[in-house]
Design a protein that fits this description.
Elements: E1 4-5, H1 13-17, E2 19-20, E3 29-33, E4 51-52, E5 57-58, E6 61-62, E7 67-68, E8 78-96, E9 107-113, E10 127-134, E11 140-144, E12 150-159, E13 163-164, E14 166-173, E15 186-187, E16 196-200, E17 224-225, E18 235-253, E19 264-270, H2 277-284, E20 289-295, E21 301-304, E22 314-322, E23 326-327, E24 329-336
Family: Belongs to the allantoicase family.
Protein name: Probable allantoicase
Enzyme class: hydrolase
Length: about 350
Amino acid sequence: MDFIESPAVELPEFAKIGMNLADGSLNAVVLSVTDEFFAPRERMLNPAPARFYPGLYDDNGKWMDGWETRRRRNTGHDWCVVRLAYAGTLLGVDFDTSFFSGNFPPAASLEGCFCAEGDPDEQTTWVTLIDSVALSGNQHHFHAIDSQQTISHVRLHIWPDGGMARLRIYGLPWCNWENRDLSQSYDLIALENGGRQIAWSDAHYGEPRQILKPGRGKDMGDGWETRRRREPGNEWCILALGQAGTIEKIEIDTAHFKGNFPDRFSIQAAFEEVTLERALVTRSMFWPYLIPEQPLTADSIHSYINEISKLGKISHVRLNSIPDGGISRLRLWGKVDSVQ
């Protein structure tokens, strides 16, 4: 069936730094809603761009790609509670009303809470993250969040009713390292352990943070893939470990990349106290090699132990894709030096 896809938009800085913690593919879930008559809750957390099918209807009316409530005939309003994929420090939100042109909410607001265990109940204290803001139809609405609190759940209010194509909550995942056995080896670059993207040379088909996701990639779109490089050099990305540590094992997975995987890769690394992106990009060119150039093959997991250089504690890596192509996952297994 023919469809129209929501066009790409220029992202604010917080959406480039933070990951979407309300990503349904990472197990974020809408726990409760006041109403979902026209379109069910789970569509709102789909990480893919919203789609519009011009001639598609269901038993309740026009099929819409998002969460949509019925028309209210009282003084109340609709809301929903979302358990984020990872608790974290929130940087911003995107209230996306793509294709909701005559049925979007005039306003929205956002609250948050932290539940160390379980989900919120009637005794939970909610804090305001975004005061009520005006919405327009068929648009992205980006708003920065100024809060240092760790948030595990959000409550979206729409005033008074209508449809939200996507809710994207951008933030940095939080991991409680203090309760972990630091004698064990962990994937220090994994999203769930606080790993994050810092900078990259190109991400035409997918951002580097994709390679930090759990599990194997589901398809060729689930990874970091660059355009075809037509000039000398190679593509690269800089990544921050969730906690500084000593790397013992490296895994590079080219799952689904069969005619477009990099010919080779290498990883440079260092312990850096500087956090400014521009400085890290420059300094990374001179970092020593954690692992020198190694050949890659299509659609395979590549593991390395003996090839790893003994650099000691590192906090950042520069992954070089030589000369270009797609990588599905990166795993850096090692031991945390000390919790920071």
